[in-house]
Specification:
It is a single chain. The chain has 10 helices and 7 strands. It has one domain: 3-Layer(aba) Sandwich (Rossmann fold). It is of the alpha/beta class.
Length: 249
Amino acid sequence: MLDYDEEAERYDTARGGEPRAAAAAGAVLGLLPEGTRHLLDAGCGTGIVTRRLAAARPAARVTGVDLAPAMTRRAAARLPGAVVRADIRRLPFADGLFDAVTSVWLLHLAPSDTDARAVVAECVRVLRPGGVYVTTVDKAAAHNVGSDIDAVLASRPPSPARDADGLVTGYAVALGLVPAAKARFRGRGQGRSPRRTIDDLRRGWFVTLPPGDPLADGFAARLAALPDQDRPRPDPVFSLRAFRKPAAG
């Protein structure tokens, strides 16, 4: 598992930077109600997407929340006075405070299904009746673009998909939300090359292949044998789900 405090400095550049953030923010904004006045970005990370949400809705109050100290410091530099450090499973906000809540690239990081459900439950708790919750789903699957890299990695030990669409939809519906809409966007600049994938492997990106493990070394050797070591393969395409909280009464 990556240490997101250690990862903070290179987080944006290693994941497509501003083009990727623009694509994500544009897709999220397309799912938010026009009347959104108070928005929470749960798991805001460095705030690179959050800042774009705020810029696109200047009349709205946008708040970011994240747990990793180094990530929240970067987010706070982008959105002064609007970022809170907190565990998203226990949000420090009142019930029904927000018109919309977003969690982009968050649920797949949950340590267990119980934790993922707890995150969704907190996002629902702080959402007002009539509000919308928007989240990414199936992140790991999005990275499988059918490339030669994916063929090499296909036999690696599987890891649980805490953000599987069916699981997330099940949590949301059980908590009283209604499925509302879907969207997709391209993760620009995230197409993997063999060399970049080896680097990711060696720094713990793949949770079932810990660095230094003989199994990880075997996959690194197979990746190193692929052609075009620095040529990025196709970008992933990410999926968003929107759920509405029924209006009271």
